[in-house]
Design a protein that fits this description.
Structural class: alpha+beta
Order of helices and strands: HHEEEEEEHHEEEEEEEEEEEEEEE
Distance between the termini: 98 Å
Helix content: 10-25%
Shape: elongated
Strand content: 35-45%
Number of helices: 4
CATH architecture of the largest domain: Beta Barrel
Number of strands: 21
Number of domains: 4
CATH class of the largest domain: Mainly Beta
CATH topology of the largest domain: OB fold (Dihydrolipoamide Acetyltransferase, E2P)
Radius of gyration: 51 Å
Length: 378
Amino acid sequence: MPRPLTILVVVVALAGAAVAVWHFEPFGPLPFLGANASAASSGAPAAGKGAGPGDGKAAKGPRAVAVEVAEVATQPVETRLTAIGTLESNESVVLRSEIAGRVASIGFREAEPVKAGALVLEIDAAAARAELAEMEARLQLGRQNAERAQRLFAQKVGSASERDEAVAALRVAEAELNLARVRLAKTRIEAPFEGILGLRRVSVGAYVNPGDDLVTLDDIDPIKVDFRVPERALSQVRTGQRIEVRIDALPDRTFTGEVYAIAPRVDVAGRALSLRARLPNPDGQLRPGLFARVDLVVDRREAALVVPEQAIVPVAEGQAVYVVIDERARLTPVTLGQRAAARVEITDGLAAGDVVVTAGQHKIRDGAPVRIAAPPRG
């Protein structure tokens, strides 16, 4: 086909197509046009788009976030100082001999209790008894001489000086007799108080000198605990305060006692104040020298406000919690007190009965709507 004729056929075909489009458009969308395009051309809302006013419900606000909550509770809260200390005997002594001599007998079993005044050890008393007999004889002679001198003086036969010398000699004899009795008594070493004897250092037949250690005696019921606190706690401590003591050797028990003495001086080297308390020890499990962990109760508040630890949210200004008010979370700054048993004391910012968020804080912000996922826990 000649080229001009070909061009003419193409032009005619295009014109026919244009006429067909103009002719069929008013009767509906063409098969190859999308529904969105048809809607746009007819002024109707496009599929998948928001309908206009009156064509459905209005858009909703943010959805409520499910959170767990707990009520602010009241319970006793204690302020405590923690220290380390050492157990000490209520009374303790090392029994020693005051005289030299040979050990004649031992009247105790090691590590067993004794009563006050019980015979612990006896030194050979033969020499002391002989000395006592001599002093008794001298006293008898001195008494006779004094009586004779008194009669002679009364009869104006003897002089006053002879009488005075006889009376003085009598008094010396009495003093020597008393001294002999004391020496004899020192051959018996007795328990000065009720307690438990330790391990003996001597055997029967051993020769001891004055001051030699024989055996220890300890009264351990009650038992004392010595501990120290920083000097800055001076205004907080006083006698009568309660302590709780834990012993590493007895990890399953806690012992309760009371402070009864506070040292008048502060240790200059450690800047610490020394305190002493007593602990009941009826079963004798606590022993002198044991390491002790001491909690000193310096204050107790019977109706303190507490919340679970997980309710606390760190903020730039300090600490805060989310309080649920009218189904919305309100970020509320709080002041914290003591912490104990997974609970925190709140000294300012909350009231008893307030409901605080304990789980889900990372999903909310101040003023966000919330939904309680579980009943409030006390």
